[in-house]
Amino acid sequence: MLQRLIDRNDDLRRLANEGHQLALSKSGNHLLVSHVPYVTSAREVKYGTLIAELARVGDVVNAPPNHVVCFIGDMPCDSTGKELDGLRNPEGPKSVDTDLRSDRTFSARPANAYTNYYDKMVTCVAMLSAQAKVIDPNCTATPFLPLALTEEQSVFHYADTASSRAGISAISGKLEGQRIAIVGTGGTGSYVLDLTAKTPVAEIHLYDGDVFSSHNAFRSPGAASLEELEKRPSKVAQPEEHLFEAPARNRCARVHARQGQREGTCRHELRLSLHGRRR
């Protein structure tokens, strides 16, 4: 759900593109921004999480309903260890959402009401991280960490943030649910695999009965070592043995390697695979 909201809402997409660590509560009704550096009363730099109520209708995010944010962490201070003025709210720890509790609430009213979540969250992040950078100039609120996904959420192990940055999410989305077969995974097929694995196709089926040789190595992504080539690996071997299928498996959750010969013997399997009757 989060990636869909990022793709379809400019303010969330801008937060993600700048490297902020975003998440949704279990209900999808709260936006979380984690890895926010702040200073404790002991003048230590720690990382906390900001939580904001998310006003949305389906996949469309509206303007924030208020200026209030919740926080998971200690009370933020300035670089001298003094509590930040204008942040404290009398409300203490509370249950915000399903399995989500905050330690405190901040209420820093802006001159004008926030019209989007980018302005609201970046303003709050800046209040805390500016003080932390005085103590540790290398701390950052934008770590560009990967967003891990489950197989139920996506065919990817981590979210595709490149499509949203390039503005092609709608185009990439047209490939969702497709089954792709690549017959021959040598110098040409390996590049097709490398590119296809970065699209949201549902399944990729690989067919090749040949050995991966030195002439393939000079025409394929990456660089095979001499030791790897001396083992004469199959082009569609097990992930730990295969020279370019392993990176594909790290990116795409559904890649099936079949060691059928290209001529004739794989035709029946191809028909079954692409029509979904074989897994």
Task: Give an overview in words.
The protein is of the alpha+beta class. The protein folds into 2 domains: 134 residues, no CATH class; 113 residues, Rossmann fold. 27% of the residues lie in helices and 20% in strands. Helix 1 crosses helix 2.
Can you count the beta strands? 12
> Radius of gyration, rounded?
24 Å
Uncertain stretches: none
How many helices? The count is: 10
Listing every helix as H and every strand as E from the N terminus to the C terminus, the arrangement reads HHEEEEEEEEEHHHEHEHHHEH
User: What proportion of the residues form beta strands (DSSP E)?
Assistant: 15-25%
Indicate the topology.
Elements lengths: L1 H7 L1 H8 L3 E4 L5 E10 L5 E9 L2 E2 L2 E2 L6 E5 L21 E4 L2 E3 L1 E4 L9 H19 L26 H5 L2 H5 L5 E5 L5 H8 L6 E5 L6 H4 L8 H5 L14 H7 L3 E4 L8 H8 L5
Parallel strand pairs: 10-11, 11-12
Antiparallel strand pairs: 1-2, 2-3, 3-6, 4-5, 6-9, 7-8
Helix pairs in contact: 1-2, 2-3
Could you list some keywords that capture this structure?
279 residues, alpha+beta, Rossmann fold, 2 domains, five-stranded antiparallel sheet, three-stranded parallel sheet, 10 helices, 27% helix, elongated
Compact summary:
By secondary structure, the protein is of the alpha+beta class.
